[in-house]
Amino acid sequence: MEDIRSYLESGILELYVLGELSHEEAAEVQALAVKHPEIADEIAAIELALEQYAQSNAIEPDTAVGQRIFAEIGPAISLPASPVAAAVPPQHQTVTDPETGNQSARLRRLQFWLAAAVTLLVVSAGALFYTYSELSAARERITGLSLQNQQYTRNATYMLKSNEELRTMLNMNADAGWSAVRLAGTAQAPEARMMVYWHKESKQVMVNNVNLKLPEHDKNHQYQLWALVNGKPVDLGVFDAGKDTSSMMIRMKEIATAQAFAVTLEPAGGSKNPTLERMVVMGAVSI
């Protein structure tokens, strides 16, 4: 009998009611409750005292605060249901304890365990919220660093490409084999102008994209460069105006001989023959 009294005062039943025991420990309490009616009565009394304490000390939480916390930490946290109902046999659900002193001691003990459980829950929720906030901040920092790295890579690539094109332009200026052909606007586009570079020996043809002044066109059309060879137009490829400013020079198709260069506006992809009424610039090659 003394062992039963010590067991009742050990605090394990309060932990059982609060759902803080492991599966094995809870199973042991359930088995003892079936075997010893006084343990079952104690469990029922603790449950009743817990209900009375909760009702007398209930505080209505701030709805806005609760919504904010759970919106931040994700899915709602639910407390495990007390397994008392399954543990206590039906014949011990009703408790009559005539000893007022024992009831008061039991209530004080239950208050202590309840306060400890609430404190643990608050600390756990706070720690979870803090961890979630730190993870969110770290994720934002990583995203920011990734975007910065991508921008740095793009800038570095652009600078390398620009340096290569600058070296090419310097070499072109130093090479007497390059001829600069100025193309002036026609009646279709009087303000248009552009510069074409042609190397007679290597047959290379380049369009200066920096000083390109042609009317912008829609996505269904492109400009097409033509070389006039003995009065016949020869296709040198298509390009866009005002679309790509990352390249200083646009490489076109090669040509061995030409007396003039002209540009017409054609359907996207180019045409076999130039549309003369859509010629925007033209320039003769200096002899």
TrEMBL record:
Residues 113-275 form the Anti-sigma K factor RskA C-terminal domain. One of its GO terms (molecular function) is sigma factor antagonist activity. The chain crosses the membrane at residues 112-132. GO terms for cellular component: plasma membrane. Keywords: Membrane, Transmembrane, Transmembrane helix. The keyword Cell membrane does not apply. The keyword Hydrolase does not apply. One of its GO terms (biological process) is regulation of translation. This is Anti-sigma K factor RskA C-terminal domain-containing protein. It holds the Pfam family RskA_C.
